Amino acid sequence: MNLGGRGGGGESQFQIAPMLDIVFILLVFFVAAYAVVQEEKQLDIQLPKAQSGTPERRNLLDVMINLNDKGECFVNRQKVSLEVLERRLNRLAEFSRMPGATGEPGVIIRADGKCEHRFVVQIMDLCAHAKIRRVFFSSLPEEQ
């Protein structure tokens, strides 16, 4: 009795179409991830150097805030005011407290080495008001 519909030894053939779909999806994912990482690094910010520090793994809820040497604040390459940034951080904190949310939001501050300290303190103050406890600072290793 032939239940397979084929007359033969029951050999299956390799299907190339599903394999191409998977490879294409992976390619799109890695290109998009690379573009997001490069987008933040292309801003004209000279990070300070540090002898110590440990790299942290980024969370999906992390927000990268860039401060240039004039104290201007950028999120996703868009200049934002402190009022807009405060609203975004509050929404992020509220979203993370919703049922089913995973992880705690964090803020990564990339401040130019020539940026005045008061601008960094303003960002830290906004994080404190939004009850965001994970605040990180970006720097370069000494050898770079």
Walk me through what this model shows.
With 144 residues, this protein is of the alpha/beta class. It folds into 2 domains: 14-43; 45-141, 2-Layer Sandwich (Nucleotidyltransferase, domain 5), CATH 3.30.420. 38% of the residues lie in helices and 18% in strands. The strands form 2 sheets. The chain has a 5-stranded mixed sheet. Strands 1-7 form a two-stranded parallel sheet. Strand 5, helix 3 (117-129) and strand 6 form a beta-alpha-beta unit. Helix 2 packs parallel to helix 3. The N and C termini lie far apart (72 Å).
Descriptive key words:
144 residues; alpha/beta; Nucleotidyltransferase, domain 5; 2 domains; five-stranded mixed sheet; elongated
Quick recap of the structure?
With 144 residues, the protein is of the alpha/beta class. The protein is 38% helix and 18% strand.
Topology summary:
Blueprint: H1 16-41, E1 49-50, E2 62-67, E3 73-75, E4 78-80, H2 82-96, E5 106-111, H3 117-129, E6 134-137, E7 140-141
Parallel strand pairs: 1-7, 2-5, 5-6
Antiparallel strand pairs: 2-3, 3-4
Q: Helical amount among residues, as a percent range? A: 25-40%
Instruction: Count the beta strands.
Output: 7
Any idea of the CATH topology of the largest domain?
Nucleotidyltransferase, domain 5
- Please describe the biggest sheet, giving its number of strands, its sense, and whether it closes into a barrel: 5 strands, mixed
The CATH class of the largest domain, by name, is Alpha Beta
Beta content: 15-25%
CATH-scheme architecture of the largest domain: 2-Layer Sandwich
**Strand-pairing-aware structural class:** alpha/beta
Distance between the termini: 72 Å
Report the average pLDDT across residues: 82
Residue stretches low in confidence (pLDDT < 50, at least 5 long) are none
Number of continuous helical runs: 3
- Count of structural domains: 2
Return Rg in Å: 23 Å
Apparent shape: elongated
Order of helices and strands: HEEEEHEHEE
Q: Give the neighbour order of strands across the main sheet.
A: 4-3-2-5-6
